Amino acid sequence: MASKVKWVTDIEKSVLINNFEKREWTQVTENEDWNFYWMSIQTIRNVFSVDTGYRLSDDQMVNHFPNHYELTRKDLMIKNIKRYRKDLEKEGNPLAEKDENGKYIYLDFVPVTFMLPADYNLFVEEFRKNPSSTWIMKPCGKAQGKGIFLINKLSQIKKWSRDSRTSTFMAASSGKEAYVISLYIDNPLLIGGKKFDLRLYVLVTTYRPLKCYMYKLGFCRFCTVKYTPSTSELDNMFVHLTNVAIQKHGDDYNHVHGGKWTVSNLRLYLESTRGKEVTNRLFDQIHWIVVQSLKAVAPVMNNDKHCFECYGYDIIIDDKLKPWLIEVNASPSLTSSTANDRILKYNLINDTLNIVMPNGDIPDCRWNRSPPWEALGNYQVLYDEEQALSESSERDLRSRSGQSLGSKGNKGSAGVRPTAATWK
Amino acid sequence: MMGDDANLSVTIAHIVQRLKGTYLHSQIERHAKECLHQPEIKLESLKEDVRCFLKTSGWERKLQNAVYRELHSHLPPTHPAAPPEHLKEPLAYMRKAQATWEKRVLKSLNSMSSELGVPLARMRGAEEQKELRNKWNEMGTDEPDLSSFRPVYAPKDFLEVLVGLRNPNYDSSEDVSSRSHWGLIQAPLNVRDIPQLRQVFTELNLTTGQLGIDDNAHIHPDLFENQYVLVGKKVVEDQDSAAAQQYSRRGCSNGLRADLWALILNSTNQPPDVMHYEQLKTGVIQHDLLVDNLIYKDVKLTASNDDYYFVFEDFLYQVLLCFSRDTLVLEHFKYNSATPPKAYIQGKAGDEDFAVVYPPNGVIPFHGFSMYVAPLCYLYNEPSKLYSVFREMYVRYFFRLHSISSSPSGIVSLCLQFERLIQAHLPQLFYHLRQIGAQPLRMAFKWLVRAFSGYLSTDQLLLLWDRILGYDSLEIVAVLAAAVFAFRAENLMEVTSLASAEAVLADLSTLKVMPLIQIFLFATSM
C-alpha cells in the first residue's frame, strides 16, 4: 500500500484542512518531511530564497511558483504584458496587429497603466491627452483593495512626481510606496444598476509548456451601492471597489449571498438580454486574455517542477461587453463569506488537488501533468501548449501534403486567433 | 349553430369596442390615411388596396396580435343572460369564500394602519419628493425601520382558507370510500388526470424535441437545438403572437425568450406604454402608501436575500411600487374572482360615495409577491419593458395563484390536481406522508403560490414559465410539484417527521424541471 501524503499548511482554513483530512493524508509540521505544502506567499519567498531556501525533492509539491509575482504583482504583470506585445510585434506575429489608432487589436486587454513614480512623466503626458478621465491608484504589493484610491486631478498625486527629487529607488524609503496608476474603466457593465467584477480561478500546472485550466464556477462580486460615475462619489470606495474585504464594511453587505452572483447567472442574464452570440464572444475573449496573460509571463517564470498555482483573476466587463484584465491574485482568499462560498471553495481545492496530486498519491514532480478528463471536476482545460503544438504540426503536415493547396490561412499556430470565438 | 354565430358576433362587437380608441387604432388609421398618397392605391379598388397595404406593412399582424390578446382575457359571458359576476366566478360558494378572505385581509391592513398610526396614503412634501426622485435608482440603499410592519398574510394563512372550502350543495358522504378524503382540498372540482394531461401537453412527450432536455451539453446541437433556434428566430421575425405561443410550448432559447414572451403577451412597449410608466413613477413620488412598506419589506425578506435575484433589488422596488398605482390593473377584476378592496376618505368611513380602491391597482401584496417579478429581471433590463411584461403576466396568470376560484389555473384547482396526481400515482407515498403528519400539499403549497419562483434555479424556472405561456395554463405548475414528489419519493418514504420531509424537499435548485415533467407525464405507468 502506498504511504500517505504528509501535508503542511500555514493557512488555517477549513476548506483546505477538510480536503486534506478527507484524503486521510497525515499532517506534519514544516520542519518534518512533507510532501505537500499549501503555503502563503510569504512562506514561498523563504522556501526559494537564496539564503534560507532549500532544494525540494521529487516527492514534494508546493502551491506557488517561486517568482509568481511576475504575474501577481500589478507592476510586474503590466511590464511583462508590455514586453510580450513588443516581442510579438518584433517577430511580425499577426497577434500584435494594431488598428488605425495604434491600439493592439488582440492584445489590448489591460487598461492603460503606468508605474509611479517611475513612469510619472509618461503618465502626465497621457493624462493631459484626456484631462477629464479618472485614474485608479493601487499600491504594487497589496491586495484586497488596500491602499486604493481614485484621482481625476494631477495635484492629487503630486507626491509621486519625479520633480520632488525622488527616484524609484527612493520611493520606498521615503514612505512613498511604488504604485501603479491605471485608466479607470468608467463605463462598466451594470446589472440591476450595480457595478461588479468577475473573479475567475485559473490553475497552472506548468508554464513551459503552458498547461492551464479554467474553473467553471467563478462569480461576480457586486458593489452594494449604486454605481455613479460622478466625481463627487470618488471618495466613496463602496461604489467603485468590489473586493469583498472592502464591501464587507458597507452597511448593505448581505451575509446570505455576500454580494456574489455565479458566472452561470451572468451568462443566463447576458444571453437573455444581449443574445447568445455576443455572450459567447465575451466568454471567449475572457479565456483569451487569461491565456495571453499567462503566455506573457511564461518566458520569465521559473517553471519549477515542484510547483503549481491557482490564481484568482479579476476581470471587469465594460458596457460594450469588452473584458479587461485588472489583476491576478496568487493567493485568492479561502475565507468563506457565505455557505455557498464555502462549498465553492471547498470544491475548488478538491478539484485542484485532484489535478495536481493525481489519485491522492505521494507526488512525483516528474509526472506528465496530463490528468485524465474525469479528474478535472469543475475545471476545464483552457490551454495545453503541448497539444496545441502537436495539433498544429499535424495540420502543417496535412496542408503540406497538398490537401489545402494555396490556403495561407494555416500559418498561425494554435492559439493564434485572428477572429474571435473559434480560437480554441 | 345559431347560438355559436350569435356568440361570435357578440365577441367581435366586444373586441371592436375594446380596441376602439387605442394607440394601435390611431396608428393604423394614421397609416391608412398616409398610404392614400401612394401611387399603388387606386380609387377604384380603394378598400382592397388599403387592406393590402396594411397587410404588407405589418399592421394587420399587429391587429391580429391585439385581437389575440383580447380573446385571451376579455371574453364576454358565454351566455347573454349570465350576470357579470359569473365571469368572475360561476360558483357562489367560491365567490363567498373569496369575499370573506378579502374582508379579513383588508381588516388586517386597516388595523395595521391604525395600530402603527400610518395612514393608508399621504401626500409627500416637496423635499421628500425631491429626495425620492434622486434616489429612484437606488431605493435599496435605504434602510427604513420596517420592523413593525408584518406581511398582511403569508401563503400558509391562505392555505388554511382553501382547506376550509366546502361546496354546500355537495354531499361528500356519498363517496366516503374513495380517496378524495385523503387530501386537504375538499372542493369538488374537475381536474385533469394523467391521460387527459397527456393530451393537453402533447408537445412535451418523449419523442418531441424540447429545450430543457434536448439542448443538454452532451447532445450535439445539430441534432435539435440549432434548427429549433432558427425556427425561433423566424417566429420573432414574423411577429405573430399565436405562433410564438405555440413555439414556447417546447421552450424558448435564452437568446430569444425576452422577445418571444413579449410577443406572446403582446407587450409591445410603445411610446404610450413608456409614458404610462413614467406617470406611475410620478405617482409613486407624489404619494406615500402604506402598502409601499409591505412591498419594501417583502423585497427585503425575499429577493434581497436570494442568490439569484439580489442584484435586481432596485428594479423590484421600481416595478412593484409603480404596479401598486396602476389603475389599468383594475380591468382584470372583470374576470378575477377577487374584488378590489375599498378604503374611505378620512372621516367618511362606510360612505360609498367616498370610497376609493386601495391600493389604486386593487392588489394587496403578500409575503413573496415580489418573486413574481424577480425572474423577469433576467430578461428585461429596461424598467418600462420589464414593467409591462410583468403586468401582463400578472393579469393573465399570477392573480389566479392567490384568488379563490374554480378556474382550472386557479390555486384551488392546482392544489387539488397536485393532490390527486400523487394519490393516483404515488398512493403509498401519500399514505405514508399523511400518516406522519406531513400532508404533501402543506409542503408544496408555497411552490404553487409562487409558480416555483425562488425555489428553482432561474434557468429552470424560465423553462417552466415558457410552458405556462405556451399552454396558457398554470396546470404545469401542479404537475411539476407532483413530479418533484415522485422524484424524491424514495427519500420521502424513509422520513418519519414533517421536519425531515421538509428537509428532503428544501433545496430544489439542482432539479432539471423538463425531464421531471416529461417522465412524470409520459413515462409513468398507469
TrEMBL record, chain A:
The family note in this entry says:
Belongs to the tubulin polyglutamylase family.
What are the record keywords, sorted? ATP-binding, Cell projection, Cilium, Cytoplasm, Cytoskeleton, Ligase, Microtubule, Nucleotide-binding
Grouped into one coarse class, the protein's main location is cytoplasm
Please, which domain of life does this record's source organism belong to? Eukaryota
Q: Name the source organism.
A: Cynoglossus semilaevis
Supply the Gene3D superfamilies for this chain. Answer: ATP-grasp fold, B domain (3.30.470.20)
GO CC terms, sorted: ciliary basal body; microtubule
The name under which this protein is listed is Polyglutamylase complex subunit TTLL1
Against PROSITE patterns, the record matches this protein to: TTL (PS51221)
Annotated GO biological processes are: microtubule cytoskeleton organization
Q: What are the GO MF terms of this UniProt record?
A: ATP binding; tubulin binding; tubulin-glutamic acid ligase activity
Catalysed conversion reaction: (L-glutamyl)(n)-gamma-L-glutamyl-L-glutamyl-[protein] + L-glutamate + ATP = (L-glutamyl)(n+1)-gamma-L-glutamyl-L-glutamyl-[protein] + ADP + phosphate + H(+)
Q: Where in the cell is it found?
A: Cytoplasm, Cytoskeleton, Cilium basal body
Q: How does it assemble?
A: Part of the neuronal tubulin polyglutamylase complex which contains TPGS1, TPGS2, TTLL1, LRRC49 and NICN1. Interacts with PCM1, CSTPP1 and LRRC49.
Q: Where is this region: Disordered?
A: 390-424
Automatic annotation (TrEMBL), chain B:
The organism's taxonomy opens as:
Eukaryota, Metazoa, Chordata, Craniata, Vertebrata
In Swiss-Prot or TrEMBL terms, this protein is called TBC1 domain family, member 19
Q: Which InterPro entries match?
A: Rab-GAP-TBC_dom, Rab-GAP_TBC_sf, TBC1D19
Q: Where are the transmembrane segments?
A: none
Q: Which domain of life is it from?
A: Eukaryota
Where in this chain does the record put each Rab-GAP TBC domain?
251-472
Source organism: Cynoglossus semilaevis (Tongue sole)
One Pfam family, short name please? RabGAP-TBC
